Amino acid sequence: MAFGTLATAPSALSGEAFLELRGVGKSFGVGAARTEVLSDIDLALAEGEFLAIVGFSGSGKSTLINLIAGLLMPDVGELRLQGRPITGPGPDRGVVFQSYALLPWLTVLGNVQLAVDAVFRSESKQDRVHRARHYVELVGLGAAHWKYPRELSGGMRQRVSVARGLAMDPKLLLLDEPLSALDALTRGSLQSEIERIWAADRKTVVMITNDVDEALLLADRIIPLRPGPRASLGPSFAVPLARPRDRKAVNDDPEYKRIRNEITHYLTVVSRQAAAANPTRRLKKPVAKPASLRPPSMSLVP
Amino acid sequence: MSSETPALVSGKARMSRTAIRTAEGLGLEILVPAIRLATGEEPRAQLKDLLRSVGVPIVSILAFLGLWASLAASVETSIGSLPGPSEVWVAAKSLVAEHFVERQKEVEFQARMEILKAKWEAEGKPWTERKYSGKPTYFDQIWTSLQTVFAGFLVASLIAVPLGILCGLSRTMNAAFSPLIQIFKPVSPLAWLPIVMILVSGLYTSEDPFFEKSFISSALTVSLCSLWPTLVNTALGVASVDQDHLNVARVLRLPWTTRVMKIVVPSALPLIFTGLRLSLGVGWMVLIAAEMLAQNPGLGKFVWDMFQNGSSQTLAQIMVAVFTIGLIGFFLDRVMVVLQRAVSFDGASGA
Predict the structure, then answer these.
(1) How far is CA B119 from the centre of its chain?
(2) What is the spatial distance between Cα B263 and Cα A133, in angstroms, rounded to a whole number?
(3) HEC-encoded secondary structure of chain B
(4) ipTM > 0.85 for the complex
(5) Is the C-alpha dihedral spanning A11, A259, A97, A165 positive or negative?
(6) Cross-chain Cβ contact B263/A99 below 8 Å
(7) CB contact under 8 A, A103 and B251
(8) Among A51, A55, A65, A54, which Cα is nearest to A220's?
(9) Helix B138-169 and helix B265-294: axis angle, to 10°?
């Protein structure tokens, strides 16, 4: 079975890729409980590219993002950013966390300011405040900059998180299921927002998502992550749709439908294969029988 | 947040909401139904709430007083029968009156001294200041106790919070201190006090001491006992900082001090304050015992002195002290609750 156009990235695996992962694997746990979450991940990403990685929940998507962010270290293989190996986290890779990870004791501006102050230490105080404000306004929260995260809706919180990620002015922006916790409407409007912001300064982006439509709306290229354990990357699907992509118009686009079908089909097939290959994944039911059916004694004296 | 648009909210409702928020901030939730009732919000439900939050406590207090009054007279001791509420009330009033009499005496003494000073200076004799040496009144004792407990609490907090942060941050530090904490935490103040007293009298040998030795001994005993809740809670709060928040710090490569001050401490603040609140409670409880034994002026010594003199007023006055200690402890706890709320970022109440 042939799956999609095996589009190679502009500078794939030639050693000059912007971000490059070679044979990356990661396991968790010790001894018998050790499971290999990711195995043999190869990836090359060109500068300015928007890559979406789609996969089922629990397939190791967040692990992959954490590896690129440097928050986790791989067991095997290597990761390189602009040819230099990734040895730990750093502000050159801005992360927008799935859970937003906003500091609840800081205001909207305070959260962004913290990142700006940490990254642009050499700038004057005034420049840094200016910079933080700029990003808060970019995500449309200028009027709410003094609010605390608890006073914001989920969508607004995620905007703050995006603003913080962008304010670091990273070489690479990592979006870890940025919209998965939001309702469909908010999700839609934030997707358009992310595209607008991305179009404005063309950062290199790796986005993790479980939503094929979201990936199709935003990404230049989509790579499915095969279900774990031992998850590895599938073939890459180019998304040559014109930008800006209107979420309504795109639905009738035959090209859109074709890619969508291919990816969905691929995901369905690999998930079925995975289920067949890993029958042991079916968990055993725990024994949950009460020791005695007698009602607990209510007397105070045993 | 509220879905109502500001224009639809009447001034009265807004006022009531402000009042409710203020009351909650001050730890006086008990007033909330009353405020709601006053502004006419669901009077029936508010009345029911009010009845439960105010009515029931009043009934239980009255029942307690009634039971006490009826039983006290029948308990005979070597120094008369157990005083009932009315005797205690009389004793409380006499303690207050005594305070004012004593203050009056002091004023008169000062006036006499002024006259004497003028006279001596006129005669060219050298004048030395004389301090009024009347016995401390009940309110003086309370004041001394409060000073002692705060001194002890302050020392304890200054040690416990930084140490707790270290223990929370580093597993090695935690492993190092954990056994010591486990062993010293359950030690009674009565065991610490003799050690502290001997150490203080051995090491604190100033000619003109700024603090009384007895004050230092009781304050340090308070510190030794109230150290632990803050230490343990701070360590827990610091150790349980959200991993996501720490990841933010890692991505930003925040320097150690910034990480501690901007991420770790704010995040642990609610638990630190829970610890401080427990510590102050423990400190206040320990103080009475420490003062009693160290003979440091204060409520503890007052109770001890009353016990020693064995007059007919003894029991009633000790009971006044019991209620005073209880009420002050309650008040201190409320103050800490308000502080705790002021610093907790998630709006969670720690009642």
Answers:
(1) 46
(2) 21
(3) CCCCCHHHCCHHHHHHHHHHHHHHHCCCHHHHHHHHHHCCCCHHHHHHHHHHHHHHHHHHHHHHHHHHHHHHCCCEECCEECCCHHHHHHHHHHHHHHHHHHHHHHHHHHHHHHHHHHHHHHHCCCCCCCCCCCCCCHHHHHHHHHHHHHHHHHHHHHHHHHHHHHHHHCHHHHHHHHHHHHHHCCCCHHHHHHHHHHHHHHHCCCCCCCCCHHHHHHHHHHHHHHHHHHHHHHHHHHHCCCHHHHHHHHHCCCCHHHHHHHHHHHHHHHHHHHHHHHHHHHHHHHHHHHHHHHCCCCHHHHHHHHHHHCCCCHHHHHHHHHHHHHHHHHHHHHHHHHHHHHHCCCCCCCC
(4) no
(5) positive
(6) no
(7) no
(8) A51
(9) 140
Hey, are the CB atoms on B247 and A95 less than 8 Å from each other? yes
Q: How confident is the model at residue A295 (pLDDT cuts 50, 70, 90)?
A: low
Burial of residue B281, with CB atoms counted within 10 A of its CB: 0-12 exposed, 13-18 middle, 19 or more buried: middle
Looking at residue B5, its pLDDT comes to 47
Give the distance from residue B4's alpha carbon to the nearest chain A alpha carbon, in angstroms. Answer: 15
Would you state the pLDDT for residue A287?
Answer: 64
Q: Which of A67, A105, A106, A161 to mutate to test the interface with B (most CBs of B within 10 A)?
A: A105
Express each pLDDT in A42-76 by its tens digit: 999 999 899 999 988 777 888 899 999 999 999 99
Q: Is B314 exposed, middle or buried (0-12, 13-18, 19+ CB in 10 A)?
A: buried
Q: Which one of A91, A105, A150 has the shortest CB-CB distance to B252? A: A91
Q: Which of B245, B251, B345 sits opposite A69 (nearest CB)?
A: B251
Mean of pLDDT values over A225-232: 81
**To the nearest 10°, the Cα dihedral for A115, A118, A122, A125?**
60
Joined together, the tokens standing for residue B61 give 């207090």
**pTM of the complete model:** 0.78
Q: How far is CA A222 from the centre of its chain?
A: 12
Q: At A275, which amino acid appears?
A: A
